Amino acid sequence: MADTDSDVLDDRAAEFTSVSLGEIEPARSRHMWTRSAVHATDELVAAGQWNGSVVAYEAGALEGGSSAPDLEPRWTVNHPEHAVGIASLEEADGGDDGSDDSDAIVVAGRGETGAIAAYDAATGDRRWRYETASDVGKPVKDSVFYLPYVVALESDPATGRVYAAARRYERDGETRRWHSTVYAFESDGTVRWRYETDASPIALDRADDGDRLAVGYNRCTGDHDVGLVVLEAESGDPLWTWDPGTEGDRRVGDVSVDGEQVAVASHGDKRGYLLGPGGAERWRVDLAVPTDVDGETLYAYPNHVYANDGRVAFVTGNTYAEESRETEGRHPNEHRIAAFDAEGTPLWDDAVRGFVHGLAADGDRLVAPCAQNFRVRDPDTHAVRRYDLESGPVGRERFDGVATAGAVADDTVAAIEEPVAYHDDGETRGTYRLHVAALE
Fold first, then answer.
1. Contact of 285 with 274, CB cutoff 8 Å
2. How many CB atoms lie within 10 A of CB 62?
3. Any idea where the domains of the chain sit in the sequence?
4. Domain 6-10+94-396 part of CATH 2.130.10.10
5. Which of 191, 210, 303, 434 pairs as cysteine with 317 (C-beta 3.0–4.6 A)?
6. Which residues, in sequence order, are bridge partners of residue 91?
7. pLDDT tens figures, 186-203
């Protein structure tokens, strides 16, 4: 594999404009759960915060080659719960005057009700709201991990439809249970169909032709025992399923649809897969499989995958040991991004160095917001790293705090920085801010 390192490249630094998002508790040495969200369109950048506030900023100043957007707020709303996911519905027909009057910003919540709400992209007026707790159940314990959680959103501009996956966790002694529902919402918020299981969904991706929806399931402890389900988008009926066939309840970390193929990041065996129609295996690659390091068997989870035009990129996460909860060792392929061609031949790889909460993509552009590496506490890992899917590293922008959310659309890149306080030095680094720039 052509092993590159974006840290030794001359950075093609983007010129960011930044705005404060207020206050949030600093992250610690270990990465925290998803607390922020950002989404970019050609019209605006929307930032979702842990306190529920969602602000849409004008992105028009990015046009005409400007690299320093003004970020004037268009509107602000208070989502009823933690705003942890955002998608946009840019309907194909638009308004009669060519404006974005028919467009919407859809916000996913984590809270008592697991609320999904759609807001008018021009005004912020709420169009509809749905409480997923009516399907997955209400929390049985006052803890963030027990709250109903809308983990993923996908939209289809051709139909005006929004797809969502929600889950709820509960534990009784040693027994762990998940309750989950995948939804198709019409543009007015009407539920077209539901697909319910007792497993934990983690990712959605829609085929470009709108016919299929891939759902990745991370934990399978009940009757539902497969990591990937491909649904017929019109009806919600299962078309085919796939599973890594491994022991334990860990199955899939992420899915990405590319034409008739589906790329899968497998938590079960720590490999990456490209599947054809019906789940036929085209190829698989070792990503962070169990490896002996100084007498310990270490592994890392492939957490993210993105496929486009016959190329696939995978991102791995933290090192874990098979026989112990703690380890000072590091898997040689932890915190890396690796890309492959249509035949599974390596194209390039690079060290992302810190934990990547989510991989943002648009066409062949990739954005990896990198947070802390809790085993090697180094503030230089706090960065937004940018890649071309075909050729590799493009640039890197470092933050004082940790980068926990990213977005890219057309020539706009956006990221959210959260403050971090490592447990062993007492210093708080960074602040809670949104950063936006135009790319050349």
1. no
2. 25
3. 6-10+94-396
4. yes
5. 303
6. none
7. 999 999 999 999 999 999
